[in-house]
Amino acid sequence: MNSLNFKFPIIYLFTVGIANIGGWIYLLAINLMVLEETGSALAVSALYIIKPITQLLVGPWAGSVIDRVSTKHMMVTLDVIRAMLILFIPFSDSILIIYILVFFIQMAGAIFEPASFTYMTLLLPENIRNRFNAILSFVHSGAFVTGPLIAGGLFMIGSLKEALFVNVIIFLVCAAITLLLPKQMSTVTIENSKITWMNIRDDWHLVVHFSKKAIPFFVIYMMFQTVMLLTAALDSMEVTFAKKVLHLSDTAYGSLVTIAGIGFLMGAVFTNILVRFAPAKLLMGLGTLLVSVGYVIYSFSSTYLLASIGFFVLSFFLSISNTGYMTYIQSNIPTEMMGRISSLYEMLSSSIQIVVILFLGLATHWFSVKEVVISGSILMFCVAFYLTLLSANKLKRN
After folding, report:
1. Pick from 288, 286, 281: which is nearest to 327 by CA?
2. Fewest CB within 10 angstroms: 129, 140, 174, 238, which?
3. Burial class, 376, CB count within 10 angstroms (exposed 0-12 / middle 13-18 / buried 19+)
4. CA-to-CA distance for 262 and 316, rounded, in angstroms?
5. What own/partner pairs with CB < 8 Å and gap ≥ 24 does 36-44 have?
6. Can you give the residue ranges of the Major facilitator superfamily (MFS) profile domain (predicted)?
7. Is the distance from CB of 342 to CB of 333 less than 8 angstroms?
8. How many domains are contained in the chain?
9. What is the mean pLDDT of residues 105-125?
10. Is residue 2 situated within a structural domain?
11. Could you report the per-residue pLDDT of 252-287, keeping only the tens digit for each?
12. Is residue 80 included in any domain, yes or no?
């Protein structure tokens, strides 16, 4: 990767880094704001259901738009829209209005994510994707560590509303930097560029046809997504587990999150070394298996030390598995269909995510939190183990 070839990817990485820091500021600020307004932990939990709901709503049609327009200009527009929506939140006294604004912010984000991924895939030569994804993982981990620190500093010197104003500026800066990137168009012909119900329906048929032809890929994709959905479901019970099962103080729980951030950062550094000689399927398979091992350690823990080991292990290998996953799907989904396939697959994953979170949440009424978390982590390990076997078989055949 010489400097000329990597000029625009560096700009993209810089934009992602700033956006992720802004994302942490927004996430923490909106959570605290809703908690202050309502005093209800349930009201805060409801914020986490909004995202998969918006993905269900935009999934059927977003990919059809992404594959037919300039993804660069779409990303700029969505950043500006999110900035304007966040700008209204500090002036909103009604919790209902805040939820509505969050809903549309998440909807814009649900379109932005596949658009950004499609753009990145079109921007990168195939031979540098694996290493680029490793660097991207490092950027994400850096934001994971620095984002909450910056947010905490903003909360100390100002109010939550002032922190959201900073977030508005961050999104506008991201939009401005994105304008420096080259224009990337999909390979869809001009004749098919109109967005109509008939074209959307035809796009669904194309995705179904692709999935039937690429069943091994689809199975591996869904196995990986199942593991990630289980991590999201278990994360939703993380605070309850730490408080009621491990009996940790707020400070001790905060240090667990810090340990996870350090693990993610160290994992990202290790990933940048590993990608030089390890194929994407190996990174995805073994990385996902070891993530599940970390969750198993955490779920069976009864002391702070064991819980911290589990946190470190799962976060360390999460960077490795994500890097392998991104490279794997970039290599197996045609770029001209990247937006449509990723959007519809995300819609399917979101529908499963809602069911899993609700099911595990209801299960805590019948069983103890520890029993539910242990069961979820064991199920995750079984799925991850099967994914590793599938990945190993594909490596042998190749």
Report:
1. 281
2. 238
3. buried
4. 8
5. 36/160, 37/95, 37/98, 38/95, 43/95
6. 1-394
7. yes
8. 1
9. 86
10. no
11. 766 777 788 788 888 888 888 888 777 878 888 889
12. yes
- From residue 3, give the alpha-carbon distance in Å to each of 10, 288, 289, 313: 9, 32, 35, 34
Indicate whether 378 belongs to any domain. yes
Tell me the Ramachandran region of residue 112: left when phi exceeds 0, alpha when psi lies from -120 to 50, beta otherwise: alpha
260: closest CA among 310, 320, 315, 309? 315
Domain membership of residue 295 as a residue range: 7-179+194-397
Distance between CA atoms of 3 and 349, rounded to whole angstroms? Answer: 37
Give the CATH number for residue 98: 1.20.1250.20
Over residues 190-210, mean pLDDT: 73
pTM of the model: 0.78
Residue with tokens 């905060």: 254
Q: Is-contact 162 42, C-beta < 8 A?
A: no
In angstroms, the CA 165 to CA 175 distance is: 16
